[in-house]
Amino acid sequence: MMKRTLTTSLSLILALGLTACGNGNGSNGSADTGDAAKGSSGSGQKTKISYWTGDRHDADFVKEKVAEFNKTNTDGIEVELVVKGDDFDTALDLSFQTSDAPDVIRVKENTIQTFYKKGFLAPIDEFLTDELKAKFPAMPDLNEFDGARYSLPNYGTTMRLVYNKDLFAKAGIEHPPTTLQELVDTAKKLTEAGKADGAYGFAQNFKNPSSAFGRSARVIAEMSGFGGFGYDFKTARYDFSGFEPIIQAFKQIKDDGSMLPGVESLDIDPLRAQFAEGKIGMYMSYSSEPGVYKNQFPAKIDWAAAPVPTIDGKVKGASGFLGGQWLGLSSKSEHKEAAWKFMQFMYDDQVLTEYQEKGFGISMVPSISAAAKTPDVNGIEGFLPNKNDGVWPVYPTVAPEGMKSDDAFFKYMLNGGDLKAIIADLNKRYNAALDSTIANDGLKAEPDAGFDPAGLGGKFAK
């Protein structure tokens, strides 16, 4: 299983995703979803279910669709939409310890495996016809586990460097950086050019280090030929040494005063709001950003997206091409048939087509991507799949004792220390956790001596 590279067919070539993997600003909200129609029995009794999501970029669209479903379904089903922020995973964990678990769950490529292993998800095979199975091609370890399906695809995402073209022009910089050293130097020049207006060269949403590094250090590592989560597929061991120059560069940017002050408490939506106002020169993120700057935070600047820099300017791997999930059925739902009817509504051609054409994402469903129009959204061209985008194999998730890698790296950025020693400690603890998981949970992690990161790219390029 660990050797399997999860490449999909070329019929998914347009799967690029403008959607956010990023969560919101930490606020919670329940949508005003309107009144549900009376059930077919005419009794007026409603079957109430809830849908939880951590996405903010498409919240208004989803709210409208939930309200539409509530008003038009003839089964007396009423859906409550609950929008969480960066606390989504924690809130979901707590909900499963009580009686408040949702009926439908937003799942992503970096959460669906965890939710599956925790028993949060119920298989949906009993609801799938042969037609649906053919229409929504499943990817093993992303939609499908142990022969059962747990989610259907909607869209995919790419990751890029997002930059303020106005501030670049003011600083006299013609091109976005292609190496880590250029990233450090560019951030410094942008800060010098923008200081009078309170603008800084670089930022990431470090209130959640996992989210911040997941959209920055991760993709730099992947483009440079290293596993984005510290796992080496050639040896089937964890080795974070490839992150050393990346984290050093981030620390240098902060030490230079080129990073937006207060990033340790910065969520992704406040970061986007600052960027839209021209206060940030560069950051890295998913292909949600074009839709965000059209619908959520209308940009007051000219901006664009470019490939992220690599360690030395050479591409030795592939930028992780992500996606393949959307909605999952809760294992604790007492109304699974009603929940499925809502999921079926959300996976309807009209909803998925509108989702793409409004700029929230380009579908990974071949029939939708072939028929729907490409969104007319500023910045989309920078996120189109290219020769360096590719699908990495699924890495084994483990729970090491002590501090996780992202927290350890951010602590180093703030306080300094011996980075080599920090990495050695991470390798020791993560591999101990890996060995324990293999021994106790039956995880399979086999070396692949012929694994070539450079061979992953280009399968989705036009």
In a nutshell, what does this entry contain?
The chain has 462 residues and is of the alpha/beta class. It is 34% helix and 13% strand.
Walk me through what this model shows.
Strands 1-3-2-4-17-5 form a six-stranded mixed beta sheet. The two termini are 29 Å apart. Helices cover 34% and strands 13% of the residues. With 462 residues, the protein is an alpha/beta fold.
Helix content: 25-40%
Number of helices: 16
User: Biggest sheet: strands side by side, in what order?
Assistant: 1-3-2-4-17-5
Please compute the radius of gyration using only Cα atoms: 22 Å
Distance between the termini: 29 Å
Instruction: Write down the overall geometry.
Output: globular
Question: What would the average pLDDT be, to the nearest integer?
Answer: 88
What is the number of E strands? 18
Major β-sheet annotation: 6 strands, mixed
Q: Helices and strands: which structural class?
A: alpha/beta
**Low-pLDDT regions:** 1-42
> Per DSSP, what share of the residues sits in E-state strands of 2 or more residues?
5-15%
Topology:
Layout: E1 29-30, E2 47-53, H1 59-72, E3 77-83, H2 88-97, E4 104-106, H3 112-117, E5 121-122, H4 130-135, E6 144-145, E7 148-149, E8 156-157, E9 159-164, H5 165-170, H6 180-194, E10 200-202, H7 209-214, H8 217-223, E11 231-232, E12 237-238, H9 244-255, H10 268-276, E13 280-286, H11 289-296, E14 303-306, E15 319-320, E16 322-323, E17 327-330, H12 336-346, H13 349-357, H14 366-371, E18 389-390, H15 405-415, H16 419-441
Parallel strand pairs: 2-3, 2-4, 10-13, 15-18
Antiparallel strand pairs: 1-3, 4-17, 5-17, 6-7, 8-16, 9-13, 9-14, 11-12
Helix pairs in contact: 6-9, 9-15, 15-16
